[in-house]
Amino acid sequence: MATIGRFNRSEVKKENQLFSRFKTLVETAFYGNNVTSVTNLQKAYHLATQASGTVVTDLPVKHTSDLGLPEETKMLIFNDGKIVGRTAAARVVIGHPGVDSDYYQGILREALYQSREQNFYTADVVVGLDEKFMVKSHLMLPEGFENNLYSYLLNFQIANKQWQERYENSVSYEENDIYLFANPNWHHPDFPFGLALFDPEHNVAAVLGLRYFGELKKGTLTLAWATAHRNNYVACHGGIKQYQLPEGNKYTMAAFGLSGSGKSTITLTQHGGKYKVDVLHDDAFIIDRDTGSTIALEPAYFDKVQDYPLTHNTVDYYLTMQNVGATKDKEGKTVPVLQDIRNGNGRTVKSRYVTKNRVDALDEKLDAVFWIMKDDSLPPVVKVEDPILAAVFGLTLATKRSTAENVVGDVDLNQLVIEPYADPFRAYPLAEDYRNFRDLFNKNKTACYILNTDAFHGKDITPQVTLSSIEKIITGEAIFEQFGPIKEMSYLPIEGYELDLNDKKYMKDIHARLQSRLDFILKENNTNEGYDALPEETAEMMRHVISEL
C-alpha cells in the first residue's frame, strides 16, 4: 500500500518519526462522534443538492455511469462570499524560519476543540493516478459545505473499490496518509484572512476560516507535491500533453504558469484536430527524476470559466461551479451565468472527459518545458540553450497576479512579480526545485522555451500567436535567430513582433528585467534566514547574461 494510514500497535510510539504533535492533533479529530463518513459519490451528490444555498441547474452531467454518479445528476452551483480566490497570506508552514511551532499548536488545539460543536463529514481520495505514485488523502469538512466535499471527491479520485484495489497494489512509501482538516466557520482576531497551517513532513494540514474550494485542492496538492519531492520526483504546477506526430513520432511538452497565464488553454487545446493530442493534466503532475516519465495527480480539472460562454462545448463537461451566476433560459430552465459576469474567478470542476484523449501517465520523457511569462520585455517565443540558464529562467518566472488569488493589501495586479516555477505551494527550500529542473534540462536533454503571453512593444500576444508557434516547434518548422549578443538564447521571428536590438528604450527595458531577476536571486540569500538561498551558479549565470548585453 502506498502511504501509511494504519499502524501496528508497537509502532505507535514517540520514537516513530511518522508521528508529530500536528499529525496527532489533526488525525484525532477524524475519529470524533460528530463525524460521518461519506464513501460514495451518490451520497456526496445528494448531500450537496440538499445544502442550503445550492443551485441545482437543469443542465445534465455527462458520463454519469463512468463517474459513479446517479443518472439524473445535474450540474450544481455554490457561491462563496466576498473572497473568491486563494489567500496566500493565510499560509503558514511548520518548519519554516520564524514559525513558532508551539504557538500554532495552541491555535490548532483550540480550533479543534471549538469544532466539537459542529457535525462534520469525512471522505477519502487517492492523489496520483498511477501505481508508481499514489497517496491516500482524508478530508474533514463541516456540515454546510457539502458542495466543497462533493467537488473534492470529483476533483481527486474517490477511493472506490476499483481504485482502492489499485492503491493497495501501488508502490509503498514510508510516508503518512494526508489528513486535511477544514473549518470555514472558524474565526480568530489574530487571523482576519484565515489560516492555512501545514506540517508537510507529516502530511497534515488545517484550513481554517477559508471557504474557497481552491484552498482544499491546493492544500492537498501542497502535501502531495512535498511527498513526491521527498521520493525522487519533480513536483510540477503546470500542464502537460503529448502530440502524436506523423511516422509514429511523439512530442511531449509541459507548460508552467500561474492561473490566468494561458496554462490551461495551451494544455487543453486540440489544435483544430491537426494532431492526436493526449492530455495528462493542466495543473498538477510529477516527473520521475531518473526516467523523465510523468504522472497526473488528479482526474478532473478545476478551471476558470471567464473565457467560456454558456454555448461553448466545454460547458457540457462541467460537474460543479463555484462563484458564478444563474438565470432562466427561454424554456424556463435554470442555467449558469459564466464569463465572470457575477464576479472574478468564477470556477468549475470539469470531468476528465472534456479532453478526448486523456491519459494518467506518460512513459516517454519530456521533450520540452515552456515557461509561461507575462514579461513584455521578451518576444512571444524565446529558446534557452543552456541548462543552468533554462532552470534560472524558471526560477525567476516573471508573471502577473490574477483574480484566482485573494491578494491581501494594496497590490497592483498589473505589476510583474516573480513566482519560481509558477509554484506558490512549495513546502521545501527553493534550491531543491532549482537543482531538480537544472538536472532535468541537463541529464534528460529537455529543451526549454519561454512563452510571453502578455504583450511585446505594446502589442498583445494572442493565443493564436502562441499556439501556432508551439505547432512550429513540435513539427520542427520553427527557425530561431540568436537573441542579439546573448549566445545562450534565441527567439522565433514573428511578423508584427519584431525584435529591434537598436532600440535604446527596449535595450534598457530588457536589461532592467534581467537585473530584477538577479536582484531576486540575491535577495533570497537573506530572506527568511536564507531558507530559499540559491547556489552561486544562479547569480553567476544571470550576471553573465547581463554582461553579454
From TrEMBL:
EC number(s) reported in the record: 4.1.1.49
Gene Ontology MF term list: ATP binding; phosphoenolpyruvate carboxykinase (ATP) activity
InterPro entries found in the cross-reference section: PEP_carboxykinase_ATP (IPR001272), PEP_carboxykinase_C (IPR013035), PEP_carboxykinase_N (IPR008210)
One Pfam family from the record: PEPCK_ATP
Pathway: Carbohydrate biosynthesis; gluconeogenesis
Catalytic activity: oxaloacetate + ATP = phosphoenolpyruvate + ADP + CO2
The keyword Nucleotide-binding belongs to this UniProt entry's keyword annotation: yes
GO biological process: gluconeogenesis
Xref: SUPFAM superfamilies: PEP carboxykinase N-terminal domain, PEP carboxykinase-like
UniProt name for this protein: phosphoenolpyruvate carboxykinase (ATP)
Source species: Tetragenococcus halophilus subsp. halophilus
Lineage per the UniProt record: Bacteria, Bacillati, Bacillota, Bacilli, Lactobacillales
